[in-house]
Design a protein that fits this description.
Helices cover 82% and strands 0% of the residues. It contains 8 helices and no strands. Helix 5 crosses helix 7 and helix 7 crosses helix 8. It starts with a helix and ends with a helix.
Length: 225
């Protein structure tokens, strides 16, 4: 190969390297934006919960359930943009296959069984499915973790996402439930563990459905116990 040929290859390598560097910077920027968006979502959600105090699930009655339904409906609506970004992403369009819809079918089966066996707990089940399961998984795995993974490896993504996940739980407990401020710090470790488990399930299954199903069942069973 002559000198001109080598020069051309060198030029092509430089172009490719610049494209990679530019793409990497774009992914870092999107990751920072994703972190800020989730934190903003958390602050707004907590502020909204402070403005509209609610009866806990165990104390729902015919007189206060309408207010609870309104609050939860607004919370569910706030998650729709995060869910939309997931269903429009390459992760869903490129990786989701018919077999990945199995967890959604199992969620339907669980809903039917709860309705038949525990009719008095139906609202609690739908709360843990839509607000907790779908809400947290679409926000933290379907959006935040997915954006972080474009810029970082799995470990770094889990740590960053887990810190935000833990902070979300600790901050909401402190602001809404009146827990100790030290609880925010104690939740950070649990957030990383939770992010590790649910992110691993998400990546291994290539479907957000499995983390939603498992998250919902764990929290609903904890509520029953």
């Amino acid at each position: 190969m002559n000198r001109h040929g080598y020069s051309l290859l060198h030029l092509l390598d430089e172009v490719v390297e610049k494209e990679r560097s530019s793409l990497k910077k774009a992914h870092y920027k999107k990751s920072i934006i994703a972190l800020l968006v989730v934190l903003m979502y958390l602050l707004i959600a907590v502020a909204f919960a402070k403005i509209l105090p609610l009866a806990v699930l165990q104390d729902l009655t015919n007189s206060n359930i309408k207010r609870r339904i309104l609050h939860d409906a607004i919370q569910a609506a706030a998650v729709i943009p995060f869910a939309a970004t997931y269903f429009r992403s390459a992760d869903f369009r490129g990786k989701e296959t018919y077999s990945k819809w199995i967890p959604w079918g199992l969620i339907g089966v669980c809903a039917i069984l709860v309705t038949i066996i525990l009719p008095e707990r139906v609202y609690a089940f739908w709360f843990y499915l839509i607000i907790v399961g779908c809400g947290e998984e679409f926000v933290f795995r379907g959006y935040l973790h997915r954006e972080l993974r474009k810029a970082f490896n799995f470990k770094v993504s889990v740590i960053l996402g887990g810190l935000v996940f833990g902070f979300a739980h600790g901050y909401s407990h402190f602001m809404v439930l009146g827990g100790p401020i030290t609880g925010i710090l104690s939740e950070l470790g649990g957030g990383i563990v939770g992010a590790l488990v649910f992110s691993a399930i998400y990546e291994k299954s290539n479907s957000i459905g499995w983390p939603i199903l498992i998250h919902t069942c764990l929290d609903f069973v904890g509520y029953l116990i």
